[in-house]
Amino acid sequence: MYSDKVEATHFEIEGRSKEECRDKLYSEYGDNYEILNWKKIPKGGWFLGIGQHEVMRAVYIVNNHREEPRPADTERDKFTKSRDDYLQKMDPSITSTLQIAQLSKKLDQISADMNEKFDTISQVSTAHDDHPTIKKIEDLLSENEFTKSYIQKIAERLRAEFSLEELADFEKTQQTVVDWIGSDIHIATEPVFRPPHVIIIVGPTGVGKTTTVAKMAANIILDAKNRQLPRPAVRMITIDKLRVGAAVQLERYGEIMGVEVDKAEKMEDVKDLFNNYKAKLDYLLIDTSGCSPNDFENIGKMRAILEVPGLKPDVYLAVTAGTKSVDLEKIIKNYDSFNFRSIIITKCDETSTYGNVLSVLAEKGKDISWVTDGQSVPRYIERASPVMFLSNLVDFSIDHKHIEEKFGQTGN
Questions:
Q1: Which secondary structure element, helix H or strand E, spans residue 158, and what is its range?
Q2: Strands (E), 290-379
Q3: Which of 6, 17, 352, 392 has minimal CB crowding within 10 Å?
Q4: 155 has pLDDT over 90
Q5: 125 vs 323, more confident
Q6: CA distances from residue 177 to 172, 210, 403 in whole angstroms, order as listed
Q7: Shortest CA distance to 183 belongs to which of 152, 159, 154, 161?
Q8: What does the alpha-carbon distance between residue 367 and residue 188 come to, in Å, rounded to a whole number?
Q9: How far is Cα 212 from Cα 317, in angstroms, rounded to an integer?
């Protein structure tokens, strides 16, 4: 204990006993005081000293080296006082200031231990944030053009589910991330065939709807031939009035395949064609006008044309593999009124990454049915599969046997 008797100012404090004086001093100064001497003095009483009692008076000094309280300590002192009051309320037997101080010390130690644990947890969390494996996974996902929100979701999941020791195994971590991506790819189940099976392709301008309709028609015919089944009765309708040459293009495809093509401009036209041919058809495929995602007027008109009683179509939204994520979100939102059953991803030959599309479809909970590429009819069109997308992840080390076993079955 420090003391400086030359410069220190003397103070006095009274109590019923020395212990009470010390308790008062400890409560006020902690150990930062020094008692110089004691005096026993009379106190109170009536006439001629009758009724007087003795008390102890301590003469003391306060250590001149005592630190001035910091602003933050003021709130701490308030907390300490309220805590002491609380302790007395909880246990009325705690009457001594020294008892309160001792309990307060214990609480301070518990608080210090908890802060140390929190610091440890914080350090572990920081280590996760800065871990090179997580950073490398984030870079790989970014290279594959996954959205920032999707990358963040994967990174947070790694921090939550992987220990630092597990993150040290990059290959295992990477394989787990590939599995997570595969689980986020939802493949639509094939619809039950009930003739006439009506298929409608909608979507923005330039996504390849007309070519996709022709590919689907050719695929239906070739599939029946390969399975040695009778040739199905297929017919196509175009209601694309906005794009010059759309009807001519579909008619040319129809001639090659031996499939009739009809034109329709309003709902009554579609209704008449459907009623005239439905008893004779296995499949009716309808090509629609391409509209800007923000062209609500023409999107609404197109939807009205297709509201034919009894049509019961399977509607697919066609989008290109290279569609920017922000544009894809708008397309999905503005074509939701068609109640499309799933997505067809077109022009897969025009991009090497699928992260943008996969991110948005996962976040929107949309299924994928088909993927196409090129202008060649009948091929290439095939049922979508997580294996196809996972196999094309750029710079990921892919365990092809593993993903075939885990995701080889389409239609989840």
A1: helix 148-161
A2: 314-320, 342-346, 368-372
A3: 6
A4: yes
A5: 323
A6: 9, 37, 12
A7: 154
A8: 5
A9: 11
Strand order, beta sheet including 53-62: 10-15, 53-62, 33-43
pLDDT band (50, 70, 90) for residue 70? very low
Q: Which long-range contacts (CB under 8 A, 24 or more apart) does 118-123 make?
A: none
Q: What's the token pair of residue 4?
A: 């400086």
Which of 123-132, 163-172, 295-304, 358-367 is predicted with the least confidence, judged by mean pLDDT? Answer: 123-132
Element holding 111 (H helix, E strand) = helix 97-129
Identify the pLDDT of residue 248.
Answer: 87
Span 197-384: which CATH code? 3.40.50.300
pLDDT value of residue 2: 38
Which residue in the block uniquely carries the two structure tokens 């947890």?
121
Output 382 or 63, whichever has higher pLDDT: 382
Q: What residue spans define the domains of the chain?
A: 10-107, 197-384
Is it the case that residue 386 has pLDDT exceeding 50? yes
Count H helices and E strands in the chain, helices first: 15, 11
Token pair of 53, please?
A: 């009692």
Environment class of 64 (CB within 10 Å of its CB; exposed 0-12, middle 13-18, buried 19+): middle
Half-sphere exposure (Cβ direction) of 107: Cα atoms closer than 13 Å: 12
Alpha carbon distance 382, 361 (integer Å): 19
Cis before 354? omega within 30 = no
How far, in Å, are 32, 145, 238, 275, 318 from residue 342 at the CA level? 77, 22, 21, 26, 9
pLDDT in tens, 98-130: 566 666 667 777 777 676 666 555 554 555 567
Give the pLDDT score at 300: 85
- Per DSSP bridges, beta strands 314-320 and 368-372 are unpaired
- Burial of 251 from C-beta contacts in 10 A (0-12 / 13-18 / 19+): middle
- Identify the residue whose tokens are 């907390």: 79
- Mean pLDDT highest for which of 34-38, 273-277, 287-291? 273-277
